Amino acid sequence: MFNAPISRRKFLAGIASTTTSGYLSPLLTATPLSQGSREKPYSMDLSRSKHATLRTVPLDAVTINGGFWGERVTASRQAAIPEIYAQEVENGRIFNFQRLKGADHSTISSDLPSLRAGADSEIYKWLEAVGWSLTSANPALQAQARQITQDVIGAQESTGYVDTYWIGDRVAKRMLPETQISGHEVYCMGHLIQAGIAMYRTSGDRTLLDTGLRFIDAYILAGFGPEADKKPLISGHPGPEMALVELYRETSDPKYLNLAEYLLHGDSRLPIRPDQAVYNFAGVPFTGRTVMEGHAVRATYACGGAADYAIETGDPAYMKALDVLWQDMAERQMYVTGAVGARIKGEAFGGDYELNDQGSYCESCANIGVVLWAQRMLALTGEARFADVMERALYNGVNSGMALDGLSFNYRNPLLYIPGIDPKVRRPFWHTNCCPPNLAHVFASLQGFFYSTSKDGVHVHLYNDSEFNWKLEGGTPLRITQNTSYPWKGVVDLTFGPGASTEFTLFLRIPHWSATSTATVNGAAVELTKPGEYLAICRTWSAGDKVRLTFDMNPRLIVAKQQVEATRRRVAVQRGPLIYCMEAIDQPSALSLDQFALKIDADTAKSLSVRSHPELLGGTVTISAPGVLYSGKNADPGDSLYSTMASEAQAPQPVTLQLIP
Ligand SMILES: [Zn+2]
């Protein structure tokens, strides 16, 4: 059910089923869950992880107070979450569950248009977004989530199996090897687990998590695994690995960690074709991989799961593979926006330095995969290079996925978009609606990316008006208030709140893009570290201490390595963490965008000027840049494709271009 295309500017501006059961045998013994996580809702609980260099802080320990991210989080909570729910209802995804309640799944019709393999994950991602957003009380939303949870339970069979697509004449194909590879059953289970964990940790309600546990314990682990008397299992779409490691963190039961490793390793009893091993990024040992390839969401999610496994085990083979794969992505396959997936065909990574702009896929989910993987690599190593990519992808490749008003979404996030040629951007709903609820889940848990603790102190990764109210690993309570207009302005003030005077190290990320930065403690200058590292300030901190950071906010021209064919003789404009964009609507006359170009010479960078626009797009900063307009022969769309070059007809006219974030 597709809606009319939405312009980029508009995009920027703007059933209760009570109970079920009787049908299900209850869990004989409820799986013990961590009481601590319920009291302190971590989106990723590293509080007991043996090989985490940095530890996450609970979501309710950080409050985002407005500013750039506050507006995005609010738009997601107030507009995107209700809109996604309405679209999922309208497109039958919730009805898919409701109609199975009490029915014999083998006889019920399997040809509803709303049925799609993997579509259940849209509901689970929405429930996860709701779960994390319940760190702020919202009884109406919680009641809605409870109702949908009952719909999911109503669709769960007594075996523990739940999937609304593999019903009717498809029942016989459930969990067959070829179905595992492409059928999304295990993938959906992973998102069910993540949603259940979110709901449990913020509301204390374990109902949804028990539904996922029943699927894993009674169905998956009972029938599938490496043992000779069980059938082999493959992760056709990675994602469940991250969920299983988080479930291990929640329950302390190693069987879930082992299941994650088994999926990452693959099972030779279930041979898959070489092209499937590439596309699915599964089925062969993860530790043997050296290249980011295949479906970009699958690949980045597999890496996130492998990083989670490494955080728990310290397995050197995993650490080595992760480092090689990260370098392959960050050095050869990532866009300047932190997005990945150069090819539309297969929604896939390309070859080395294959980074086309117009044809790029850059799915929002893949860019989220980059952020989740980066967050885990940062926790594993403590290295700022991962936080730099996390920031780049959050501000650009992920943030671009949701409209300013939270009511429409990008599936693709190409760097060049020509209306009429490719209409596949900006819609309230997608036939495969994976990205919108996934974006909502990131915004709902965004505060979890801001800070970490370590044995030495506190790390600040992201800057925005916010309050950190948590404790050092030794147990000393600590409060830090951030005041800033970042990313519009480069000054960040941090103030320490009341608490005992304590010696520890404050680690402040100096972004790689800030060529010249300064830092002061209570007005006294501090010697800076290099860009792209953490500035470590070790001292006795007391209430009222103030730190001021000042970053270099001069607009910069970014060029890619010469090997990137698609961007030779081209530049990107970046200011702070934001990559800027040129739109036809902002240029001197309503001409086609391909008639304009930035004038590039030695003085261009110096002549970029910055202007604040409180009235534009909810308040933004634009950049004016020297440009040229090509209006002669070959510039008009009506001209012939090829003709002899006529130098006088090509003379460009100077113009001033306006760029927006
Ligand atoms: Zn997606």
* Whole-angstrom Rg: 25 Å
Oligomer: single chain
Present as ligands are: zinc ion
Distance between the termini: 30 Å
Q: Assign an overall shape.
A: globular
Structural class of the helix and strand makeup?
alpha+beta
Q: Could you give the count of β-strands?
A: 20
What does the average pLDDT come to?
93
- What is the count of helical runs? 17
Strand fraction equals 5-15%
Helix content: 25-40%
Widest β-sheet, arrangement of strands:
2-5-6-7-12-9-10
The low-pLDDT segments are 14-23
Q: Let me know the largest β-sheet.
A: 7 strands, antiparallel
Q: What does this entry look like structurally?
A:
34% of the residues lie in helices and 15% in strands. The longest helix is centred in the N-terminal third of the chain and has 24 residues. 50% of the residues are buried. The structure holds zinc ion (ZN).
Features:
seven-stranded antiparallel β-sheet, alpha+beta, 661 residues, binds zinc ion, five-stranded mixed β-sheet, 17 helices, globular, 15% strand
Summarize the structure.
By secondary structure, the chain is an alpha+beta fold.
Compile the SSE list and pairings.
Blueprint: H1 8-13, H2 35-39, E1 55-56, E2 62-64, H3 67-90, H4 93-98, H5 120-133, H6 139-155, H7 177-182, H8 185-203, H9 207-223, H10 240-251, H11 254-265, H12 274-280, H13 296-313, H14 316-332, H15 364-381, H16 384-398, H17 435-444, E3 451-453, E4 457-460, E5 466-471, E6 477-484, E7 491-496, E8 502-510, E9 518-521, E10 524-525, E11 533-541, E12 546-550, E13 556-558, E14 572-575, E15 578-579, E16 581-582, E17 596-598, E18 609-613, E19 620-629, E20 653-660
Parallel strand pairs: 4-8
Antiparallel strand pairs: 1-3, 2-5, 3-4, 5-6, 6-7, 7-12, 8-11, 9-10, 9-12, 13-14, 14-15, 16-20, 17-19, 18-19, 19-20
The protein binds zinc ion.
The site of zinc ion has 7 residues, from helix 15 and helix 17.
